[in-house]
Amino acid sequence: MDVTETIAQALKAEGVEYLIGFPSNPLFDQDAAEAVGIRQIVVRQERTGVHMVDAIGRLTSGEGIAAFACQHGPGTENAIGAVAQAYGESAPLVAIPAGYDERKTDVEPKFNSLLNYQHVTQSAEQLTDTDAVDETMRRAFSNGKNGRPGPALVEVPKDVFHQDVEEFDYKPATTSTPGPDPADISEAAEILLEADRPVVFAGQGVHYAQGWDALLELAETLEVPVGTSLNGKSAFPEDHPLSLGAGSKSEPGQLAHFLREADVIFGVGCSFTQTAYGITVPDDNTVIHSTLDPVDIDKDVEADHSVVGDARLVLESLVDEIETRLDGDSPGRFDDVAAEIDEVREDWLAEWRPKLTSEEEPINPYRIIHELDGIVDKEDCIVTHDAGNPRDFLAPFFEVTEPLSYIGWGKTTQLGYGLGLIMGAKLLHPEKLCINVWGDGAIGMTGLDFETATREDIPILSIYLNNREMASYDTPFYGDFAEVAEALGGYGERIEDPDDVAPALKRGIEKTREGTPTLLEFMTAKETDLSRPDLE
């Protein structure tokens, strides 16, 4: 066997089902991954492939890591932004780019992945020793899955791929789940039980820990409202009476209200990173911060108490401790809290209903989100969005009820991210309706990879909000993207009448059920209002 074949066998042993990327890389060129039963998918642009792999890692809670491969030089240059995105979002994946031949690795000019990816990966190694394939690949998977998840990179010089391997006996990487200190749990439980107006804020760590049931049990035992980060959206059912929705640049009124009034905020599975796309944590309360990565504690938000550990184990331990202390009693505030949430939520929605039901032309984008929210089966869909307005319109007004039914993100994001994410989601869940919402900038960045969806039989529903504007910059408009979708082998439709929004969405959903990737191009108004309740 050569190095290429042994890497493919290592991927198979690790449970990898998809190798996604772009030739020229021997893993593709020799069909090495396909030879061991791994589906190979070639994309139009490298970063779309990384985004697909990113989604698979997140939607399997890190248990189903996929792999990315590309050519040396330009391929690695194109992919680095998407790997940086995965690093920022703690998305587990393994990247195996080709490198220059060993004799050229340090010869200028070059783009050396080993050097340039170190700051955007959990680990970055160059494989040059044919006797070290097994340990190198095992380290990559271990670093990608354990602790804070993220991308791991193994660069393989082109000539090394073809060198022979004498012995190869691969054993998959092990994983561990660290639990919390019981003393920290005891103190956290005491603080929460003594609080008058506690709030739980859940992040993406709840998804990775699969701590959804434990989060729900804590909320109902403690009778406490729960909000989430955008990454954590869907960790708590948003149709639950105790749900506050998700924090972002645009967010529900009830979340801001309860954060403003909280005397204790318990953040679990979150970093509390302060960005324009997250919550503002008031400084006049007690903060309990629970995270798997201790580096997050006191990074941006000063914590009064911390609990380090896996989110599910932390939540389960807290529930046990609180139930013991309550000894069959209850806090007795469920009805009051639920009623207050409902009242504030209804007041907030009343302000926004004119936009959500607008009859204006061009179509108000909030009307599209509102119709979408009412049409789709929440138990059978996965939704994501792109940066900018698509995110800001969707996040507060699209209610999710099932874990991992929403792919959000919490920091800066490349335009065009959502297409790859939703294609990865559809690969993983072909039975579900998978939707991405994007705008002019995003479709310009990665729109041609809609052809990947048609070529690879990935029937997504892509909702394009066309307001003839990129990043608030007016642009001349040429062409018809619905026609482009048709030319690329999918179904495309342009919608200009607000009364046709719901029928068009239903037609698009039906087309995806028939197996056809679909793009609905809605001609929209230049909406600028966002739901950003003031926390001051």
UniProtKB/TrEMBL annotation:
The keyword Methyltransferase does not apply. Gene3D superfamilies: 3.40.50.970, TPP-binding domain. InterPro entries: DHS-like_NAD/FAD-binding_dom, THDP-binding, Thiamin_PyroP_enz_cen_dom, Thiamin_PyroP_enz_TPP-bd_dom, TPP-bd_CS, TPP_enz, TPP_enzyme_TPP-bd. GO terms for biological process: isoleucine biosynthetic process; L-valine biosynthetic process; sulfur compound biosynthetic process. It comes from the Archaea. Residues 386-521 form the Thiamine pyrophosphate enzyme TPP-binding domain. Residues 185-318 form the Thiamine pyrophosphate enzyme central domain. Transmembrane segments: none annotated. GO terms for cellular component: acetolactate synthase complex. Residues 1-120 form the Thiamine pyrophosphate enzyme N-terminal TPP-binding domain. Belongs to the TPP enzyme family. NCBIfam families: PRK06154.1 (NF004807). This is Thiamine pyrophosphate-requiring protein.
